[in-house]
Amino acid sequence: MFNSSPLKPHFNFKEMTKHLLTLIALLASLYASSQCIDESLIDPEVICPGLWAPVCGCNGVTYGNSCEAQYIGGVTEWTDGECAPAPQCLDLVNLDFGMCEMWLGYALVDGQCSGLSGCGYIIDEVDYSPYFFQEQDACIASCQPTDSCMDLNGIDFGLCSMWLGFANINGQCTSLSGCGYVVDEIDYSPYFFQEENDCLASCGTVDTCMDVNGIDFGPCDMWLGYALVNGQCSGLSGCDYVVDNIDYSPYFFQEESECIASCGSIDSCLDLNGIDFGMCAMWLGFANINGQCTSLSGCGYVVDDIDYSPYFFQEESVCLASCVAVDSCQDLGGVDFGLCDMWLGYALVNGTCTGLGGCGYVVDNVDYYPAFYPNLSECFLACGPQQDCINEWQIEQGELVDCVGDFNPVCGCDSVTYANSCIAFFTGGVVTYSIGECSKTEEGCQVIPNIINFGKCEAVLGWAVRDTGCVETSGCSYIGQNGYDYSGYFFASQYECVNSCIDEVVIECIDEDQINLKIGCPAIYQPVCGCDSVTYANDCVAHNHNGVTTWTMGECDTTASIEKLNNNKIVAYPNPSNSLLNISLAKSFKANQVAIYDLTGKTVLQQTINGTERLVMDISALASGIYILECKADDGAAARQQIIKE
């Protein structure tokens, strides 16, 4: 070791004292040694027994027995047993061995085994050669036994099959076998562990990804961090990192992304949003950024000692297949589904819902099935342009339409008068309009253009004002192929549609003159929905017992509110009922009689009232079935409701 520091002019008492104590110890040893050996005792002719009964001579040398110590060694004193090893671990810090380049060996310097050069081992007549080792491993084994994680790579423990334990080999806790722990007179047993977990815990910086499954960190709520549990990075809480005197803190990460990045490609789709890969132009590949496969460039894959290369893909299609679920409205423009004739469905293509065919939904390992819809209206509902009145798609389609014709003005939902419906729809892009100029527009009765279709399904949507008047319309949903929701433009019956929206046409829904309760209607349930939005057991009951002029087959929409029923003057509840039936009447309806009829028109219950607004009837004696509740006033006005007896 070279000591290039200049001599300091001041006196360092502490260092001088240390040198003096070392020198005194060595001189005392030399003096004692001179008193220990008496050469006159040495007698080569004395035959000592070949018995191994070691003694330690006062000169620090071990002899086979006392005879050899006295007559061969000439020692004057000894003790039973072998001598302790010579102290070879004197710390040589601050000793100056000169500026020469002669290699001296390894010695303990400031607590570490360091290689030293100099002019020789002797300084101030003191020989320091006993404190040098020619191999660093030997120095460490003798003088640094506290480092139980010394790397034993290159140490040959022999070809025997005796298991030695776990030790650090090239930075990994490795199971080793051999002939014994001693190699070249160096005992390596302090560097072995009998349990792999102990090795990992002590040499933890070697492998930070030990699986801590089964380790009980206690019932406390203290946040510990993320660690590998059953092969997955999981957040853990507990009382402490130390369990059974083993510190597991090296196996915890404070960020989940660090745990995943360090402990394997558990999730190759880690979102790299916020990771700064630098300003370099080197292309890295495709990676998940905010849920999208994004092309990234930077200075390299390693950021803050974390290697993010496992989260990059060289092909966008592979990234998409691995990390990105196809969005239900992903634009499929440019995706080639092949030349087959298989019908796939409707999907967004270059901004427009378009019907597509092909060989299948999977292209380049990406499954595009979630982006398809069975009909055009559903596609527009999910992905089409949604605007209150003006639909840009209609205007785009209008580039292919030549709107000519007579002046038949319509008023668009934008309060603009158009020359005809074609111009309104394709040039103005209005989703609905009313017949005539805007000054005559009546809110709630906008026309749904005949060009709008609601799909090929046969579900009855209701009655709506079309170009030809009130028309019963069927389809798959209330969403037109232009993507607009027309549900607010439908009526439950032709009666409501015509009376609300068609000028100079009035349809009477209830004709009192046709009511004839003496007609016996069949007791069968083939429901019809009357123009008054009431469901009747069959058309006979609707026409003859209730005077309904028009109806449609099937039950009415049962979602009608109590407020709507009150407009019909009567509300009966609970309905169905099995005992007491509460009846509420509108204030303007002064009824004087309440009756209940069965489906044959027979009166089964009757009660006289005096203009009361609320009453209760006991129907518990009635057989289960469908009945008609009727309330009549003195002026002949009547209100009816279907009730069900459970």
Shape: elongated
Number of contiguous helices: 12
Strand content: 25-35%
Helix proportion of residues, in percent? Answer: 10-25%
> What multimeric state do the chains show?
single chain
How many strand segments? 39
For the biggest β-sheet, the strand order reads 36-35-38-39
Radius of gyration: 50 Å
Summarize the structure.
This protein is 16% helix and 28% strand. By secondary structure, the chain is an alpha+beta fold.
Description:
The structure is a single chain. This protein has twelve helices and 39 strands. The N terminus is likely disordered. The protein is an alpha+beta fold and 646 residues long. Among the domains are: 131 residues, no CATH class; 45 residues, no CATH class; 42 residues, no CATH class; 110 residues, no CATH class; 107 residues, Sandwich (Immunoglobulin-like). The strands form 16 sheets. A four-stranded antiparallel β-sheet has the order 36-35-38-39, with no helix packed on it. Strands 2-1-3 form a three-stranded antiparallel β-sheet. The longest helix is centred in the N-terminal third of the chain and has 24 residues. It is elongated and about 155 Å long.
